[in-house]
């Protein structure tokens, strides 16, 4: 199994050190065409025939997956320098079914703002990095079958708990640049000052240092982080729309997309994703969180 870091070496070691502390303390998109009524079907068929995304992966014998290195318990680097977490375990299982050996996965470290670019530029074959499906993202990447769902959560110091969104007006909310939180609060709450960071570790360090009044993350991550940091609390556990988290591939990579749709659906039906949850997330959430809150991805 390979782990590729596309950031500066100094950034990697900074990420690893912080993540060790954290880990110890703790669409599908649709192709469209603007042509004659009979052309889209012919064009789509031609693109499908020309697409070799799945064949190419099998030929090269490596599945390159973009993941987070500082997003425990979903994607992070442990004290031994090994990638761990829910997204990591799921990507390894998918690789095993795809190439016959989970060690044929190559993890490419990404940040929230780089996920789309890594697919477009061919640095990764797929993204398994807490990637929420949004209409905007579906225009530039193709999402496969979702494997988790989440809303947004807001974590703040217990001494100054934020329990209502209006409490943040005129104050500073920490978000990750390019994340669902960034998009949601920029659009809906212009009176809230946003302090943006590229990396999760930098964002949570800013919260600990008091540079912001609260932080917004996917509820999956927010609840986990708050559970591991007793001086903070998720005063708002869910806000915004219910988001679905899914693997993403480069726009037009229909071979790989169709295979992933079948694979994720199969892992859900056989209970394999539940097993991955029990191994990676249940120890963090304990018995206080119903697994189906995250695993039931049936549209309501």
Poorly predicted spans: 5-46
**Biggest sheet, open or closed, and with what strands and sense?**
6 strands, mixed
Number of strands: 14
**Strand and helix order:** EHHHEEEEHEHEHEEEHEHEHEEHHHH
Provide the gyration radius in Å: 19 Å
Biggest β-sheet: strands ordered side by side in the sheet:
1-6-2-7-14-8
| Overall residue-averaged pLDDT value | 84
Structural category: alpha/beta
**Strand-residue proportion:** 15-25%
Q: Quote the distance from N terminus to C terminus.
A: 38 Å
Helix content: 40-55%
Mass-distribution shape: globular
Continuous helix count: 13
How would you characterize this protein structure?
The protein is of the alpha/beta class and 300 residues long. 41% of the residues lie in helices and 23% in strands. The chain contains 13 helices and 14 strands. It has a six-stranded mixed beta sheet. Strands 11-10-12-9-13 form a five-stranded mixed beta sheet, with helices on both faces. Strands 3-4-5 form a three-stranded antiparallel beta sheet. Strand 10, helix 7 and strand 11 form a beta-alpha-beta unit. The chain is globular. The protein starts with a strand and ends in a 5-residue tail after the last helix. About 14% of the residues have low confidence.
């Amino acid at each position: 199994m390979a782990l590729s870091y596309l950031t500066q070496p100094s950034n990697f070691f900074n990420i690893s050190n912080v993540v060790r502390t954290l880990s110890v303390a703790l669409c599908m998109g649709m192709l469209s065409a603007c042509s004659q009524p009979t052309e889209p079907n012919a064009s789509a068929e031609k693109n499908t025939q020309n697409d070799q995304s799945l064949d190419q992966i099998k030929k090269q014998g490596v599945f390159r997956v973009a993941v987070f290195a500082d997003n425990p318990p979903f994607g992070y680097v442990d004290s031994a320098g090994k990638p761990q977490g829910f997204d990591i375990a799921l990507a390894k299982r998918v690789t095993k079914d795809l190439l016959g050996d989970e060690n044929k996965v190559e993890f490419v470290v990404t940040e929230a703002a780089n996920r789309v670019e890594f697919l477009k530029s061919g640095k990764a074959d797929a993204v398994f990095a807490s990637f929420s499906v949004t209409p905007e993202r579906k225009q530039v990447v193709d999402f496969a079958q979702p494997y988790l769902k989440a809303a947004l959560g807001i974590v703040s110091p217990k001494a100054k708990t934020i329990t209502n969104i209006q409490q943040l007006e005129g104050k500073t909310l920490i978000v990750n640049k390019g994340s669902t939180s960034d998009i949601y609060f920029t659009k809906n709450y212009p009176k809230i000052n946003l302090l943006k960071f590229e990396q999760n570790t930098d964002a949570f360090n800013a919260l600990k240092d008091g540079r912001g009044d609260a932080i917004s993350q996917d509820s999956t991550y927010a609840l986990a982080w708050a559970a591991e940091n007793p001086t903070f609390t998720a005063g708002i556990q869910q806000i915004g729309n219910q988001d679905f988290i899914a693997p993403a591939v480069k726009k037009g990579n229909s071979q790989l997309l169709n295979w992933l749709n079948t694979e994720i659906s199969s892992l859900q039906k056989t209970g394999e994703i539940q097993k991955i949850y029990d191994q990676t997330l249940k120890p963090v959430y304990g018995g206080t969180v119903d697994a189906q809150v995250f695993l039931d991805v049936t549209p309501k």
